[in-house]
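hi! just following up on the protien thing from before. the input was this:
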Amino acid sequence: ATHLAKLPRIKKENNVLLLKKSNFDRALKETKYLLVEFYVSLPQASQNLSEEFAEAARQLKKEAPRIQFGKIDVTDQHDLRKEFNIQEFPTVKFFVDGSREDPIDCKGVRQASAFITWVKRRTGPSTVLINSTDQAEAMINADNLAVIGFFKELRNNSMEVFCETAKDVPEMPFGMTSREDVCANYGIQKNTLVVFKKVGVMEQLLILVSQTSVKIFDVPVENHILLFIPTNSKTFNATYENYKSAAMEFRGKITFVLVNTNETRNGRVFEYFRIRDIDVPAVRILNLTSNAKYKMPADEVTLENLRHFCQSYLDGKAKIHLSSEEITEDWDKMPVKVLVGKNFNRIVFNKTMTVFVMFYAPWSHDCRKLLLIWDELGEKYQNRKDIIIAKIDVTANDILSVVLDRYPFFRLFPAGADYQVRSFRGRTGWHSCTLRGGWLEIAIPDDRADENQDSSGSINCL
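and the predicted 3d structure came back as:
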């Protein structure tokens, strides 16, 4: 019998696989974990990241051989660029178990150490379990910032969100504990997420704003003011002095937080507050109980403007700031209608139609998977005049009429005045039939259903 010759290994450059269309599928099949950089050879940004990327690959070569690094020059790999919708350069994506479906975006990571931490947290525990006060102190003292979650028990939704958050913030150490003695040492009595900061204006404990839901954690001061500014700007020193002075005046009433807009790891915070480059310096107040956001009316960050903004907020006179995308011309042309802040209440509270809404974040891996099933649900009900299947990006639109939950989550707004809104939570591993109509068949008196619609065998309600 003739034995086929063993295929040669895929070529590497500085410990990074050189990938292209002809060998990409093979690389996926041969690798359990594959972190891929999509780049173009000219921009300096790509060159800088490639060096850090290669250094991360070198360090993990012996320590974690099941994790491989690869790179694709999309200048001449147009099919791969189109398949993975590569719009910016460089872009890094993470492929797991040989699947090319829905790779995980690795955003904002630019240093070798951060790449190593990011991929380790995706392939193993994302946080350190703290079992003693000495261990907590060691973590706090090792870096300028340390994030510790204090939980009554380690099996709850808050802990799950904390671990998911840790995966996307590789620049900071994350630890968690449920030990009563450790919690007592820091005066913690409830589920609390704390950022320990060594130096700067905030020598006290700062609270980290989670990109999923800031309401998850109980915190000592519910009022937080955030200054968004690049620390290398010409006006920074003067602005910073004004901010520190205001912080002293409102100590104990409002927690003051400084957000450096040059720091890539703060990207999710910018996204949460809808802060753009042209907006800075910008000042926002966040109420952790209601999730309400307030925008300082004045553009100039003076002590007087800060003082007036904070006092008007405490007096209940400040106006809530609501963000909304614009209503597109084709928002209702597809089976799944696209809602934004400006048309949300008008569509979902119309009383004549039942509206089923998916609340999602575009960067969430779980959301992207469920959006495909949501499209199928929309197609099933697109001919029904009394049902609307819709979606809304809650990272770009503020909705006060709905209590936010962990992404993705769902709300059913039934027709008629006597119905109550029903809540559903997204879970990884749901069978698709759950979202393809199970809830609707239960919630809607379906005496007008088409004879061709299958309303049996798919009932699966939480």
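The longest helix spans residues 44-63.
The two ends are 58 Å apart (CA to CA).
cheers
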